[in-house]
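Case study 2.
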Amino acid sequence: MSYKLIALDLDGTLCNDEKAVTPRTAAALKQAQKHGIRVALASARPLHGLFREMHAIDCDKHHGILIAYNGGKIVDASTKEILSQTIIPHDLAVEVLHYLKDFPVSPIIDDGEQFYAESEDTYKLDHECSNNAMDCTIVPSLADALDFDLVKILTSVQPEQLYDVLSVIGKPYEDRLEFVRTAPFYIEAMPKNIHKAASLQLVCEKLGIRPEEVIAFGDAENDLEMIQFAGHGVAMGNACDALKDAADEVTLSNNDDGIAHSLEHLLDFLS
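Prediction:
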């Protein structure tokens, strides 16, 4: 099979547990791009949070694609042209921010440049700022402070409470929003039908690439549709069981160059 696009989740997939792209994995992806294969970075992170990995693999030098907010915003890495963006309507976003006060979750929102939270002690706030290289402004009320377009609402939650919360939190909005687990401590609210697979399909249509010409790598539940969409879906060795069950291949973990290991078998010029 001749592949034309490699789609990569970031946390737990492209990045190891130290939040770095290893030299072997970076080299494999740079070589793939030199051979004309496009790379799409697909993450729940804000757009700004993709830039570090974009530079690490030279994605910006080869018209790679940045799929941020789980697909809520899609950008050409070289030109920064916005290919697609879907926002939560303002009134709905304000309503949901008030509604979330009934749950043991801590909302964190962003305007593309910085985060906003209601307390410096917000669970995982430091982690999110560090992971995305973004600062945070503390405000008395996120709902009152919302004067910008919102692509998603991130909430942090204690891992032991996450699945109980996830089972009920989205029910009043199930016709308008998706509430998705994106990490053991994150639940994110996004516009309906926004996910990585839908975004990848849009990218493929724009680039004239067929699904069977796509390799996709992931580790979490929000990567499932993307793995199923791709002609060759790869679950990392550290992936959740649902992803491993759905994947065409299970590779090594994100700490063991799983992406490079797989690509070296799939792409002849890397062997």
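Residues 147 and 239 are 37 Å apart (CA to CA).
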